[in-house]
Amino acid sequence: MQANRAFTLLELLVATAATALLMLGVSSLFIAFLNTSHKSKISQNLREEGGGAMQQMLVQLRSAKGIGFDCLTSDPQSQLTFIDESGQEIRYFEDQDRIASASATSTYYLTSSKTNEADYLQSLSFRCFNSPQEQKYIEISFSLNITKVRATNLEFTSGVVTRN
Predict the structure, then answer these.
(1) Buried (b) or exposed (e) across 112-123, using 16+ Cβ within 10 A?
(2) Is the residue at 134 inside a domain?
(3) Do the domain assignments include residue 2?
(4) What are the helix and strand counts (H, E) for the chain?
(5) Total count of domains within the chain
(6) pTM for this prediction
(7) Quick check: 92 and 77 in contact, CB under 8 A?
(8) How far apart are CA 98 and CA 119, in angstroms?
C-alpha cells in the first residue's frame, strides 16, 4: 500500500495562519516607518522654514541704521520697524499667519502659507535691550506649529546686536 504524501487540512491552516501573522508584523513595521518618516519630514520642513526666516531677519537687523522702538522697556512687541542700509523703512509683523516684511514698495513673506493650519505661526515677538556700547540688542522669537497627523511645534529664538 502506498503512503499518502499530501498535506492535511490542519497543516495547511497552521501554515496559512503563521504566514498571515508574519505578514501582519511586517506590514505594521512598514506603516510605523512611514509615519515616522512623515513626521520627520514635517519637522525638517518647519526647521528649514523657521531657520531661514530667522536668518533673514537677523541679517537685515544686524546692519539696520535705526530701530523703530526704544529699548527702555523689555516688553515684547508684536512688530518691529527699522531703517535698513539703504534708508528704507522695513516692518516685520504677523500677517495671515505668516511672518511678513513690508517696505514702502512691497510686502513679502518670510514663512509660507502652504498649510491650512490655524495658528501656524505663534507668538511672534521682538524685544529690545540696550547694550553697554549704546548698541541695541534685538531678540526675536516665534514658533511654527502643525497639528495635522501628529502635533509638531518648533520654537525659534535668537538675537542680534545692531552695528549702527
Answers:
(1) eeebeeeebbee
(2) yes
(3) no
(4) 1, 8
(5) 1
(6) 0.77
(7) no
(8) 9
